[in-house]
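fyi for ur records
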Amino acid sequence: MAYKVIIMPPAKRRLDMYIGYTAIQLKNRQAAKNIRDDAKATKAQLSDMADIFKPCDNPILAEHGYRKIHFLMYLFYSRRGYFALNS
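which gave:
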C-alpha cells in the first residue's frame, strides 16, 4: 500500500532552515540542493514502506492503525494511508 507522506510544519521549517543555512551561510548551493533532493527521495521511499513499521505503543493510536518509527530527531506516525513526520 502506498502511503501519503505528510511532513508536519515543525519538521518542514527545520528542513527549510537546514537548506537555507547551507545555501546562504555556507554559500554551498549544490549541497543545499542535495539536502532537498535527499529529503524528497526519502519521502518517496517512506510512502512505499510505512506499513513495515511496528504499531504505536499507545493502545488507542494502535487501535486506529497508527505506526511509528524514530529516525534521528524525528518521530514518524502513519495511519490508514497517511504518514506524518514531526520533529
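The first strand starts at residue 4 and ends at 7. thats all i got for now
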